Amino acid sequence: MGKTRLEAFSDGVIAIIITIMVLELKVPHGATLEALVPLGPVLLSYVLSFAYVGIYWNNHHHLLHAVQSVSGGVLWANLHLLFWLSLIPFVTGWMGENHFATLPVAAYGVILFMSSVAYMILVRFLTRHQRENAALARAIGSDRKGHASMALYAVGVALAFVHPWLGFAVYFGVALLWFIPDRRIEQTVHTA
Amino acid sequence: MGKTRLEAFSDGVIAIIITIMVLELKVPHGATLEALVPLGPVLLSYVLSFAYVGIYWNNHHHLLHAVQSVSGGVLWANLHLLFWLSLIPFVTGWMGENHFATLPVAAYGVILFMSSVAYMILVRFLTRHQRENAALARAIGSDRKGHASMALYAVGVALAFVHPWLGFAVYFGVALLWFIPDRRIEQTVHTA
Amino acid sequence: MGKTRLEAFSDGVIAIIITIMVLELKVPHGATLEALVPLGPVLLSYVLSFAYVGIYWNNHHHLLHAVQSVSGGVLWANLHLLFWLSLIPFVTGWMGENHFATLPVAAYGVILFMSSVAYMILVRFLTRHQRENAALARAIGSDRKGHASMALYAVGVALAFVHPWLGFAVYFGVALLWFIPDRRIEQTVHTA
Amino acid sequence: MGKTRLEAFSDGVIAIIITIMVLELKVPHGATLEALVPLGPVLLSYVLSFAYVGIYWNNHHHLLHAVQSVSGGVLWANLHLLFWLSLIPFVTGWMGENHFATLPVAAYGVILFMSSVAYMILVRFLTRHQRENAALARAIGSDRKGHASMALYAVGVALAFVHPWLGFAVYFGVALLWFIPDRRIEQTVHTA
């Protein structure tokens, strides 16, 4: 089965997720700087989530670029990933509106953690699907970066209960780590 | 006429439907676990609807994959299906916010029933369109699974009036039934 | 210049327009039939607008299918059409929430009228663009159907001031008229 | 790496941005002309932003049309541009609802300025990427139009503090300037 429509559908869902988050930036009624101040945390959480959804789109782009064909299981693994990503606008709004309180920051990390688990499941389905995707499997290798991120999200959730900004700092750090798209795939596949 | 734009438009509409449902998960004002509790039923109905819209996208994907060309009637049958699917966010929100009360659960089943009718009409238009789609007709066969689902949705609506959770249980069961994409099409067409 | 991205962008915008209209169907707080009753007019106006946006997508699909290449002017004429279509959700909501009062029904007709003007301008740009699109020009011919619709929308707006339902009846009638996609293009181009 | 998915994702995000702005046109509760009056400024700011987002889509379309391949850096530069564009609905709503007060008009100009900076960075990444894109580099040349716009946005922001309508007039003027798509690219590349 072709991968074109899977890419198109995923692009659509991810494009909507990344854009509807801005609806949480409610237009303030006053026209003063003071009216903008309460939006500060909302904007900050928006920036982080925009980066994360962008990272997922980027890696998803690279991942499927290296894939030849998809199975029925891949369709479901992909929907599962989109489900967790679709909850990012909710936790983004919750974290922003509550000015980075403990529980929302922890919840944000839980969604990041579940998204990374779902991404890993998708990778697993793709590499197991058929021999054609062997280049991908070799490229991904043991996927230390993915496992490290998952562990760091868990650490971030735990640290959020010590102090929310510690959790936020961890999420921010992992985002920086992923800012560089998955060059492993790009290189192995393109030199193959 | 080509099917590419039909697929692209359907992907767009279905991607938006599956994503705007999350807007019903209104960000709570408190940062406590108690503030999240009322969202439980909303989240549960969201999960069910995400699965259903995902199932429709999946089957739509398989269905059109097996199709060579589309007629004007197919365009309208497809829009008709998208119309009923577009009401899923509404009944999802109604069911979730009213904590699975009788009428909303029944209404949810009615929309599922109408969507399955619309899907069946689309299949009918596609198989009758031209001989090129004969492989599809053979693959679908008598479509027992589709007819069974329609009957079960009707049963679910009736049972919702006995107890809403009975209706919900039926919808949940049918979703599980459809979780596996329509392998009949995949096999017949791909071995053809 | 290729037409693929123009189609993709238009599909995206039209898909969003047709889907966000459902957000006007606000989830009622009660779980009773009485709570649904005020939504009746909103649903009715939603159905009409869904049909209209579907008709525009359908005709747009046929129109661009017959086109070989697009100019810069076509991009703007297309955006101009999308602008008027993007106001359909607004007038749909206004008409529905005010239970088909005079002014909203007239405003709805004005937007339909402007959309049909914008569509005609787009057709003009496409047929004048280059000789390659000559097949399209011949197919469209004098476009009596388009001109008749424009005149009927104007009549509908005027009649809305006599009685809103007269205006609505005219819009409904024109929608039926357009339900059949533009077969002129389909035939001429496909037999060419 | 191919540019198809980059175009598809950008089209999706830009299509959503241009369409969700209409959600700021809140449906008035009354059915009178008076009920529409307060929407005047909101509609005016919507028209300007629709034109701007349309201009960006148009130029983005032309820009990537001239490109052969994209690097990882281009993906990020593109996301950076989409980020600033995604804030346009927010400042549009703020400017409209506050009837073109000083600060919202200035903020609107800041977002336009940042968007033009982001566009310039994207152009830089594309032209530096590889020799294949040399035709684009030659076509863009010194990009006087882009630099002039950036300067004019800054002037508009400053003038907004003198009188908001002066700022608005500048933004309006720059939009007119860009109404014509980037013919430089179209010509150079197509004659090459």
TrEMBL record, chains A, B, C, D:
Recorded topology in the membrane: Multi-pass membrane protein
One GO CC annotation: membrane
Gene Ontology MF annotations: potassium channel activity; proton channel activity
Any matching Pfam family: TMEM175
Chief location of this protein within or outside the cell: membrane
Subcellular location(s) of the protein: Membrane
Keywords, alphabetical: Ion channel, Ion transport, Membrane, Potassium, Potassium channel, Potassium transport, Transmembrane, Transmembrane helix, Transport
Catalytic activity: K(+)(in) = K(+)(out)
Transmembrane residue ranges: 12-29, 35-56, 63-85, 105-127, 148-180
Keyword Coiled coil attached: no
The keyword Magnesium is assigned to this record: no
Family to which the UniProt record says this protein belongs: Belongs to the TMEM175 family.
Listed name of the protein: DUF1211 domain-containing protein
Phylogenetic classification of the source organism: Bacteria, Pseudomonadati, Pseudomonadota, Betaproteobacteria, Burkholderiales
